[in-house]
């Protein structure tokens, strides 16, 4: 399988390199994930913000706050995975609170008040595009079922394809439950990364330029009730990411051997 060969080449290049690629990969995840949700920060602005703490000029403050909070949430997920911490509803809520820490707010509804900055489950009906998500009353039970499924399945998943299938399925399931008033896409993608980091696999990126294809894959998967559609899309994203990384690694290591300079920005 082509993707497996690409994966092996990626790992062999990473092992031969002393650059801190995981950090810059995290920056890439933050940039693309937030861009899908409307952030206008460029790759360079995201890098300078997260690495040098330089706030971009002439950009909405909200977009800066989104990036800072997302990186904190991603680091939280990576630590959980590295320590093999089982998931709980409380952890999912804490993850949501980190993502929405400075951009969330208290929301009033007929069912009562809730606070998106504190990771509260929604108490309202939510829509995205043409999709209306499940009744908020069903959310706690559905999230609990998903958490139990992950905890029972994650250690049993062994090979590259099986692990990523689980990660992509969980991504799809959580974003389809849509448990929160905001941040569901980012949280679902972070939960996908948790499963990948648990097995020390490359963390998947959904590219901002493929945003419409991403939404189409989600819609088609729901419409046809066929998870293979979403898996195929996500594997194309994985292949795209690994191929780009191989090109950068090869360029860097070639430049190092020839004594030429090289500047790497995810």
Automatic annotation (TrEMBL):
Site note Important for autoinhibition of adenylyltransferase activity, residues: 37
Residues of the signal peptide: none
Keyword Cell membrane in annotation: no
Keywords: ATP-binding, Nucleotide-binding
UniProt-listed InterPro entries: Fido (IPR003812), Fido-like_dom_sf (IPR036597), Fido_containing (IPR040198)
Fido domain residues: 87-236
Residues involved in ATP binding: 182-189
Catalytic residue list: 178
Matches recorded under Pfam families: Fic
Protein name, entry field: Fic family protein
